[in-house]
Here is the input.
Amino acid sequence: MCQPGDVVLVPCPAYTLYRINAEMRDAKAVELETAEPDFKVTPELLKKALDKYGEKVKVLVLNYPVNPTGVTYTPDEVRALADLLKNYNVAILDDEIYADLLYEGEHLPMAKLLPDQTLYVNGVSKNAAMTGWWVGYICGPSDVLKALTKVHQAAISTNATMNMDATEEVLRHGKADTAQMKTEYDQRRQFLMDAMDKIGFHYTKPMGTFYLWVKIPDSFDGDSMAYAEHLAEKAKVAIVPVAAFTKLPVRYFRISYAASMEKLKRAVDGLAKVFAEDGSFYD
Here is the structure.
């Protein structure tokens, strides 16, 4: 999709590999700074970037529900973005890997609105807990997919047959299992939000995925990496700092609730202890 010097727009914070893949192609990954507390790209923000970089913009990355924030776009918000994008010669890399893990609201794929502009990406890593099996799929215009197939087969031999057989079973018969798992995740989501409220942490409410996006207390004198090391040492809790998701100066961290309730309770106890001992506060 890109030649050297072309621009890929990435609403941030975002999964790191979008930027890395663009840079491997010698394209320029431009981070769109989304605003607290929802961290969503708006038509106004997107139009500003599209007009600024003009014909150099070849791809917009759109991932929702979003890793790492857990937020998502409402159908009306997706339609508003589509109404803008249809006027530009820009491809949309539409990563909906967490679409089946949406707890509130309705999910509308961008591919339904702009099929000729959209490369729809999904897989079974999240909805079937098959992380590590590395099975995904992409849908889009046939001319693009034919070219992509040539590149893909030169880089990767194939996936294991048993992985593909398991994926077929998931796609044909796995909806009830995913629904049951989503119910469990939702209980852990509610538990972690309630716990963070009691402790005093500020966070962005997750509508999907299995992450909580938590703001670092203003009282902490250090960046996100320093806070991650602080929590690892003092609370014995492993979190991912915002530095893993954007170069922008945002003070947040991601904590996953794709863990057992026993581990989550231990993590919450450690976080509460450190929050109190630090005398943490927000301005």
Notes: The first helix runs from residue 17 to 24.
